[in-house]
Design a protein that fits this description.
With about 425 residues, the chain is of the alpha/beta class. The chain has helices at about 35-60, 65-70, 75-85, 150-165, 170-175, 200, 210-215, 225-235, 295-305, 315, 325-350, 365-380, 400-415, 415-420, and strands at about 90, 105-110, 115-120, 125-130, 135-145, 175-185, 220-225, 245-250, 255-260, 265, 280, 290, 355-360, 390. The longest helix is centred in the C-terminal third of the chain and has 25 residues, at about 325-350.
Length: about 425
């Protein structure tokens, strides 16, 4: 789990330069090859992704354990492991001796095999992270603003990525798999909500990330909805290790969500699956509203402003809201009621095993909100619906930036049906 790893803050660890000059890519595009060769290449890519995904999910695995879990032959596993070791993606651990037979050698992901950059574009801040192959956060840079503009975000991104690259050796830079951009869906439509000039926000509609980023970074760029990206981070580095399916809620300035089915993020036809903020709920007056109007940090901000209190601490001191008093208590109570309705509605459609609640909120507030939501679900008494287990997220406030970094990881190295079978990204 991400928060349990020994991670570095702000500085990158150095190691002996690798001899390779190119980052290995487990690709699935073989359209230029003859039919037979293309099929073999696809099978090899699938199997390599399968092995890497199993090792990531279960930790150190021996060749025998990999063969058993994957269904591949021992010979096939040996060939795949040899290739992944050559590419510096897997490393061998110390032999483990049993009572009989040869000792088994666990294989683990090589932290230095791949580097991943994630950029989160938020309504109040932007955040860039650098992760290694196992999800350890090696660098983190943030900036705050009243509202996001392409110019502001681009300047910050250019400065942050330049700083990250400068702290890596040339060999390490070649192992950057890409940058994943985690951004709200149709950001330009939220101008009124965040009190931003509509014309300035409208520039986002024609903004081409890949074109603009190509001027200062020479690796692939991946774009993902911010809440879906956060869900991917939970899948790869959090509860996804033990849960095959769940619905995910992330409370930021607004609330967003994601869906995991069969160990993969379900994005939907437009990439906006689990747009939970738009889910209809009923307010205390019996009026139909949306979840976003109640379960969001913006709703708490509006509550504080209405009480003539300073709301800047919500974003500038996101780890401590202890001085918010009854306004925070009232927000938790109101948010939990509407979250319970949203959870019950979601589980009436898909029989989820679990619900995961995370957000850019203090951990103690998240725990209080989770407990309150559980109590509200009991009060609902939703007959005919089997209530799921509810968990706190394990990635935390940085999930959207970390989820951005997950995009090149998923696209190039993990078993994901959206990649393998051609769902648009």
């Amino acid at each position: 789990m991400l928060q349990k790893r020994a991670c570095y803050s702000g500085l990158l660890r150095q190691y002996d330069p690798m001899t390779e000059t190119d980052l290995p890519n487990i690709a699935s595009d073989t359209s230029a090859e003859p039919s037979g060769a293309a099929n073999q290449q696809r099978a090899r890519a699938y199997n390599e992704r399968l092995v890497l995904s199993l090792v990531r999910r279960h930790g150190g695995l021996s060749k025998a354990a990999i063969a058993k879990r994957s269904g591949l032959s021992a010979q096939a596993v040996s060939v795949i492991i040899k290739s992944l070791e050559k590419d510096k993606l897997l490393v061998r651990g110390e032999p483990v001796r049993g009572k009989v037979g040869q000792p088994s050698i666990p294989l683990s992901l090589n932290p230095d095999g791949v580097y991943l950059i994630g950029l989160k574009i938020g309504r109040r801040s932007a955040h860039v992270v650098l992760l290694d192959f196992v999800g350890c956060e090696l660098a983190s840079l943030q900036t705050h603003y009243d509202y996001p503009t392409p110019k502001t975000v681009l300047m910050f991104s250019k400065r942050a990525i330049k700083k990250i690259k400068a702290s890596l050796t040339k060999q390490q830079q070649r192992r950057i798999a890409g940058v994943g951009v985690s951004t709200p869906f149709e950001l330009w439509n939220w101008a009124e909500k965040i009190q931003a000039p509509a014309q300035e926000m409208l520039v986002w509609k024609a903004f081409d990330f890949k074109k603009e980023f190509s001027s200062f970074c020479d690796f692939p760029v991946f774009i993902e909805n911010d809440a879906t990206a956060a869900c991917a981070a939970e899948l790869v580095f959090g509860h996804g290790g033990e849960l095959a399916d769940f619905i995910y809620f992330f409370i930021g300035t607004f609330i967003g969500g994601g869906i995991v089915l069969n160990h993969a993020v379900f994005r939907g036809r437009s990439g906006n699956a689990a747009a939970v903020g738009s889910m209809p709920v009923v307010d205390s007056n019996g009026v139909a509203t949306q979840l976003i109007d109640h379960a969001s940090v913006l709703a708490l901000e509006e509550r504080l402003v209405a009480a003539d209190l300073d709301a800047t601490s919500l974003y500038q001191s996101p780890n401590d809201w202890s001085d918010l008093g009854k306004n925070l208590d009232e927000w938790i109570n109101n948010t939990s009621k509407h979250l319970a309705l949203a959870i019950a509605s979601s589980c009436a459609v898909i029989d989820f095993t679990a619900v995961i609640l995370d957000g850019a909120i203090p951990t103690d507030v998240r725990a209080q909100l989770l407990d309150a939501t559980k109590q509200q679900l009991i009060k609902l008494n939703p007959k005919g619906i089997r209530m799921p287990d509810i968990y706190e997220g394990q990635v935390g406030a940085g999930a959207r930036a970390i989820g951005g970094a997950c995009q090149p990881l998923i696209a190039r190295y993990l078993l994901d049906q959206n990649v393998l079978f051609g769902e648009p990204r």
